Amino acid sequence: MKVSRMGVHAMAAAALLLSAGAFAQRPPPPPLPDMPATPQYPSTPYPNCRNDYRNYSEAFARAEATNRCTRRIDAYHNQVMAPFVRTMLRHQERITELYESQVMNDFDYTQEQADGFYAQIMQEHADSNPDGRHMARYQEMIRRYRDDRAFLRRTFCQNAGTC
Hints:
Blueprint: H1 5-24, H2 59-103, H3 111-128, H4 136-160
């Protein structure tokens, strides 16, 4: 079979078109991974004992009631508040790891998908920072804790006569 010069060019052009078409036929990207749920501040009630000392008339009993309340709010801080902060930090680490291990530099995702997921991760990080919206309840409770601690310190001092 004799192929003309024009036929060779046509076959080469067809081969180029076929190979270019193979590159253009990119399979659809996989779904992005699910973002882990944002930790919620625990529903454990804060000790409402700040004014318990008022139930006693003797200074010693009032000082002891103040100490009991101080121990209760310190326990709440150590068992509820501090673990929540650690949980939120682990959440931030998990979402960073999710992006870095499953999305970043995975060319199965489009650039728009990767950028959009990165933006979600960055927003979740910002919302989970100490001044972020996911930490609003914690911030409210830490202010209350600090205010109660200072108040109880003054109250104990007044009732124990150690001022």
